[in-house]
Design brief:
Layout (H helix, E strand, L loop, with lengths): L2 E10 L5 H10 L12 E10 L2 E10 L19 E7 L5 H13 L8 E6 L12 H6 L3 E6 L8 H12 L2
Parallel strand pairs: 1-3, 1-4, 4-5, 5-6
Antiparallel strand pairs: 2-3
């Protein structure tokens, strides 16, 4: 059994639920109280994948203010995996995802695995969005998940898939 440390970052606009997804995954808890992340916060969780201990350092990076002032890219450097988080209530989900992917891959290798999390699905379980064109344009995207930090929907499977890919 070996131990491997991996840096995972979550990026997305303000209030899409990045912190809530991390809190659900790391602490198995949820709060409706919104507290904006300033800068970034690192959480840590050890998981077992194929008899290897993976130490995930999960970076919660502050949300983008707008399309002009983006996230501080220095936080993104050296990531082993990324989760792009979007909110089902946003009008610009596809544009936001593309902006965050472009920001991330402007400072990281193109082969770093990515997952797209369409969050807050508990607000409308029938919500669906076609993003196959984005997935085809970015071959490093492993999958998209409809997630709910509130209901714990797809949170564990999303982090597990990313972790398995990062240790290949």
């Amino acid at each position: 059994m070996s131990k491997k440390q991996k840096k995972v970052i979550l990026i997305g606009n303000f209030s899409v639920g990045k912190t809530s997804l991390i809190r659900r995954f790391v602490e198995n808890s949820f709060s409706d109280e919104y507290i904006s992340t300033i800068g970034m916060k690192i959480s840590k969780k050890e998981i077992n994948i194929n008899d290897d201990i993976i130490i995930l350092l999960i970076w919660d990076i502050e949300g983008a203010v707008d399309k002009i002032k983006r996230v501080n890219k220095t936080y993104m450097r050296g990531a082993n995996g990324v989760i792009i988080v979007a909110d089902i209530t946003s009008n610009d989900i596809k544009d936001d995802i593309i902006s965050h992917l472009n920001d991330f891959y402007s400072v990281n290798k193109e082969n770093i695995p990515a997952i797209i999390a369409i969050n807050k699905i508990d607000k409308n379980m029938n919500f669906r969005i076609a993003i196959n064109d984005i997935i085809e344009s970015y071959p490093m995207i492993l999958d998209k998940f409809y997630t709910s930090a509130k209901d714990s929907l797809n949170v564990e499977p999303m982090f597990e898939l990313l972790s398995k890919e990062m240790i290949k």
